[in-house]
Description:
Strand order of the largest sheet: 22-23-1-24
Number of strands: 24
Radius of gyration: 21 Å
Mean pLDDT: 97
Helix content: 25-40%
Bound molecules: shikimate-3-phosphate
Distance between the termini: 21 Å
Low-confidence stretches: none
Shape: globular
Number of helices: 13
Structural class: alpha/beta
Amino acid sequence: MDPFAPLSPLTARRSGPLQGRVRVPGDKSISLRSLILGAMAVGETRITGMLEGEDAISTAKAMQALGALVARTGAQAWRILGVGVSGFAQPRGPLDFGNSGTGCRLAMGAVAGCPITAIFDGDASLRSRPMRRILDPLEKFGARTVDQKEGGRLPITVKGALDPIPVVYEVPVPSAQVKSAVLLAGLAAPGTTTVIENEATRDHTEKMLKHFGAHLRSEEYGKHGRRITLTGQPELEAAPVVVPADPSSAAFPMVAALLVPGSEIILEGVMLNPLRAGLLATLKEMGASIEVLASRNEGGEDVADLRVRASTMKGVEVPAERAPTMIDEYPILAVAAAFAEGPTRMRGLKELRVKESDRLEATAALLRNNGIEVEIEGDDLIVNGKGAAPGGGLVATHMDHRLAMSALVLGTASAGPVTVDDAAFIATSFPGFAEMMRSLGADLS
Ligand code: S3P
């Protein structure tokens, strides 16, 4: 993203019924992992359904700078010629991950086991996010890291370990990014690397490692956790990757269709991995009409078409232990909650403070600016739903794609229009969002 580009505001107005059948772009988590694992495998990985958003582009460029060959061969079709585990070349300049926390953190793990030095950097949003959570475990493998500005913020230099040591690491916060970085570093170490998570997070790295031929075991740990054991120094073999539609992106047209009276849409091929399905469960508890059609398996993931109809909803309590399965969906759930009857309390949202923005404060501000009653109590967000929302606000999106899309969905159903200060960051995860929403009948201009 060009840091000097002028802001591009966008306004959503109350819309007529949304109708149609759409497929949202490929899953961001799987797309980024396929680029990084493709770069670490021997041979050619062919990816279809790839997310062609800014986060994927910056991650692809970084893989190229590390010696992999990356080429786009058609619409959402990409090809990567990997260099093998520990095979990355010394990059000539800093690796710029733009807005992508996932790309940056996973690549740090991948580099930690290679005998090279790389500088990691990103945009102002990524430079403000905590990286200590990644650097701590990587140092245990023998990597050396220097955060030039202290406090574990980018830019950061990672000097990979010459002889990485396998580790046993208990992840202190529920984070798929930290878990994944440790597993990717563990690929280069001899023996067994073990990651323990007390709350299970998305398992795309584990699934893809197995798909590429690594030996990995994942078992239950405690009440909600997992223990993952990886055998190091495997011969990772290139394998085709089919990327399903991103449930975190599908959430936006889904909630818009629930809120705009008379709507009925179909979302095609949405991934329903149980570790990503918290929003669906919550909306159903609220009374949402979402029908799961044509359930099938694509590329190792459960997917289905979802028929979504405008619904009258009620407020609910969302338990803290559900948070890892819907961590990116709270801003859009908060919008849905504003249109429900009664309060919705979302518990345990501490991690929202370290996303692309402080999403807890920014989501509350988004709602407040549009006349919706909202409170933060400790780590909980409480939205007092009134069955309708005034709107009429200008929303600061803080370089955060999901805040921008949530605000625009709010505007399609609120009494007054909702304007976002900058819609440009939507392209990090959902290129074509405005066009797709317009094709369904949303009034965005
Ligand atoms: C992601 C993990 C989550 C999520 C992010 C994608 C991933 O972050 O918020 O959008 O692909 O691993 P954390 O690991 O920080 O929870």
